[in-house]
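Quarterly update from the structural biology core.
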Amino acid sequence: MSQQIRTVAVIGSGTMGAGIAEVAAMSGQQVLLHDISADAISRAIDGLRSRLASRVSRGKLTAELADRALSRIVPVSDIAALAAADLVIEAAAENPDIKKALFNQLGEICPPQTLLTSNTSSISITAIAAGVKHPERVAGLHFFNPAPVMKLVEVVSGVATSAEVVTQLSQCVLAWGKQPVHCQSTPGFIVNRVARPYYAEAWRALEEQVAAPEVIDAALREAGGFPMGPLALTDLIGQDVNFAVTCSVFNAFWQERRFLPSLVQQELVLAGRFGKKSGQGVYRWPEGAAEVTFYPAIPAHCQAAEVKKESDVVTLDELLLLETNGETAQAAATRLHRPVVVMDRSDSNVVVIAAAASNRLESTEKAIYWLQQQGKKVLLVADYPGLLVWRTVAMLVNEALDALQKGVASEADINIAMRLGVNYPRGPLQWGEQLGWQRVLALLENLQRHYGEERYRPCSLLRQRALLESSYES
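Predicted structure, tokenized:
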């Protein structure tokens, strides 16, 4: 089946199809662009011409290279003409019945050596290939939007996909200047599966009225180091799109509680508040999130008379300032018989804290004063187990470990996928090793104890790594 890929067919001339066609044409392949609508193909080529002209005007591309790329794209109205392609990339409607029928047709039209791939983000490659002649040549080739810019491509194996096809597709992706990661066909593949907690924990915090949406986003962005807050990101993606992916993953995993959709997000979708594209979602657009107000400066007379710092615990007179371990501040205060303020994980000068309800205000303000003296900007939120950054990171780590244990992808590919696909500051498995598997496990066990829910169940591989870590320490 191994062959040089000279001609690429792209089915679908929407945003993703046009972007993939651009990538292939810029890399020197002839591109057959097919759509059931000739007008859609014309619009796609006009859009590409405009984008390339903009790059030329900014000095990012020569006019000669732009003209060559455009000349390589051939509009095709008859699907039978795709028999000439060495590689077909389908980027049509995200509908399983449409895709199955289309691939069955391609199986009849295209010779056995033609590679047949889908850009689907969630539909089973195994199901798509089931009725196709020579299903070993069928795979997923999942680009991220915008395809010409984003480096990551998930190369997805169905049950029948041959290893030779995966190797050939990965080499092709590399030749296009992209980074391939290999995964098995499973709901959400790597990125859309492992990323679910990033959205889910933010929606839960909003449902439980922990803080205003702009504070939740600021915590994950400023303290957690993520490029965009999860609520603003869902507005950008489209609440309808993000909610549909969550529902798809939830149902594909037989209603696994880790993937439970949010009723708050559902209400936005039902109201037609899809985010930026509709003018309103979590936020109004184009204004976006309101500016976050940090806790005001505490006067010097609030400082503690006696300060002790040991490991992750700061003692300020009678008060304990602790990094969260998944307990609420009140639970810790009750257990320790002391006023307690818990602090979220932070990689910056912004820190999220919560105070036990039994604290006196003057005790809590000793912690805030001390943090401000360390150069920290303080966001005070409701008492919430695991706070915002720590519980989100712990859930991402847990989901990545579950995917690893179940053979979805290698550890290296999971880390690469999450850094390049959604621009996380670290791969989740790198994060877990850095933070400590025992600490991640303890936080999730405390969350599970607090809520009494399967949602926060630590996966088996996390328990194994925590045990191994403890054996090294002993």
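Residues 206 and 370 are 28 Å apart (CA to CA).
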